[in-house]
Write a structure and sequence with these properties.
By secondary structure, the protein is α+β, with helices and mostly antiparallel strands. The chain has eight helices and 32 strands. InterPro entries: Rad28/ERCC8/Ckn1/ATCSA-1, WD40/YVTN_repeat-like_dom_sf, WD40_PAC1, WD40_repeat_dom_sf, WD40_rpt.
Length: 472
């Protein structure tokens, strides 16, 4: 639907207000282009290395944390261009702080290495950063893991390690729950078939979940609707749902357990009911969604889900993919899960309420997926998926490719979406961190003047209002 038609509906119908804002955000996200005015400077932060992990804080949406291939860490201020523009400087994003990689040490026997130790302010990882994440409710802490078999919780103010843990095998991924209010547990996935739960308060591994088929746990992610539900993927193509309060896994996703045609067409009754109510009463939309989130969390946390899974015929050897799982991303409402494997033809969308495959065909290249968990959700709950040197923007409802972002010279390793500014940040092995912004917003830092035929400067009034005058 054209924006002019949606704008006309907004003037006469209260339901058109939300439809207009959604359409504007969707069109803005589909018109992303590489920014020419704002440039990140990672060379000074990483001294020749390239960024392999990115994380944006969820409180201010301002501080971008980057992990390098040599074990170094750096933080960038994505809003520094406002101050630079006011001071008449260029829009260069320099690092706020950096933690240099520690030099390689002599290898010690595993028995002689301490499992939990406190690090000094200058001590960092000695190998490639596998994953990083800000503390969900505060910018004073962030988490990092590396191929040196260690995971560390950092104090962002003092740049010191608060606590750390070392495993016998390489740590592939770490994750903290974004919706947690009753615990601060951290999930660890390493090169073995055991999912470990690390409690930073006691600085020990409090839980071990075994049951994955394959050699290693490749991805871990927490549910966005229930703080007790953990999702893990392995090299054998298996995806398991765990309740950290229980001993066994709740559910094993099966790629052959699919929705039929009628189930795929009909949306969930609760979601459709809330959508109609919110369109009819726009002011009550937030309250209705909050109530729905609470009811969903209570339903998942209750014994109904456990009883439903236990009564059903489970197959613990079922697989969600035919190759290693390399991407896990839960939707914002916690109702769906997006996963991808080494073969991009195996990207799937799961209904977490029933554990069924929704059979959405995502338009992605058939070549293998090399990046690990390089995915982001935009404001419309659509996906940005990094694949080789490009980033694909996919519609999560139909799987259709909306756009393709090309600008890197090597494999893209991470991408992060900023919901506050409507921007996308991506890192690559070419050593660059690129910023993607909407085409309609790119002129905010550019001069709108053009040279006329006489050699003078003619100002471009294309973006000005019809009633703008130069009388003042």
């Amino acid at each position: 639907m054209a924006l002019s038609r949606i704008l006309r509906h907004r003037e006469f119908d209260s339901a058109g207000a939300s439809a207009f804002s959604s359409a504007v955000r969707e069109r803005r996200d589909q018109s992303f282009e590489q920014s020419e005015q704002r440039i990140f400077v990672p060379e000074n932060a990483f001294s020749g290395s390239s960024a392999c992990s990115l994380s944006l804080d969820g409180v201010e949406h301002r501080y971008l944390l980057a992990g390098a291939c040599d074990g170094g860490l750096a933080c960038f201020d994505v809003q520094s261009h406002y101050h630079a523009q006011r001071e008449g400087q260029q829009d260069l994003h320099e690092h706020l702080f950096r933690i240099q990689a520690s030099p390689p040490e002599a290898a010690l026997p595993l028995d002689a290495q301490p499992r939990h130790r406190h690090q000094s302010a200058t001590s960092s990882h000695r190998d490639e950063i596998t994953s990083i994440q800000w503390y969900p409710v505060d910018t004073g802490l962030f988490l990092s893991s590396s191929k040196d078999c260690s995971a560390r919780l950092w104090d962002a103010n003092e740049l010191k390690t608060v606590c750390s843990t070392t495993q016998e095998s390489q740590i592939n991924c770490v994750a903290m729950p974004e919706a947690a209010s009753g615990h601060c547990l951290i999930a660890l996935g390493a090169k073995d078939s055991v999912v470990r739960i690390w409690d930073p308060r006691s600085d020990c591994i409090s839980l071990n979940f075994a049951g994955h088929i394959g050699l290693e746990v490749t991805c871990v992610a927490w549910s966005t609707s229930c703080e007790w539900i953990l999702i893990s993927g392995g090299s054998g193509g298996q995806i398991r749902l765990w309740d950290v309060r229980k001993a066994n896994s709740l559910l094993v996703l099966d790629q052959y357990n699919t929705k039929n045609y009628s189930e795929g067409l009909n949306p969930m009754p609760d979601v459709e009911h809330l959508r109609q109510r919110s369109l009819k009463f726009p002011s009550a939309g937030d309250a209705l969604m909050d109530r729905f989130d609470r009811n969903l969390q209570e339903w998942v946390s209750s014994k109904k889900l456990v009883k439903m899974v236990s009564d059903s015929k489970r197959n613990d050897m079922a697989t969600a993919h035919d190759s290693a799982v390399r991407m896990l991303k839960a939707s914002g409402d916690g109702l769906f899960l997006y996963s991808a494997a080494a073969r991009m033809t195996e990207m799937r969308k799961w209904d977490l309420a029933s554990g069924k495959n929704t059979l959405v065909n995502f338009e992605l290249p058939a070549s293998g997926l090399k990046a690990w968990n390089a995915v982001a959700l935009d404001s419309s709950q659509n996906l940005f998926v990094a694949h080789n040197k490009a980033i694909f923007h996919l519609d999560t409802a139909t799987g259709k490719r909306l756009s393709k972002l090309s600008g890197h010279y090597d494999r893209v390793t991470a991408c992060v979406y900023n919901p506050a500014c409507g921007e996308l940040y991506s890192a690559s092995l070419d050593g660059n961190i690129l910023l993607w912004e909407a085409e309609r917003l790119k002129s905010h830092g550019k001069h709108a003047e053009k040279e006329d035929g006489n050699g003078g400067r003619a100002q471009d009034f294309g973006n000005e209002d019809d009633w703008t005058t130069d009388e003042d």
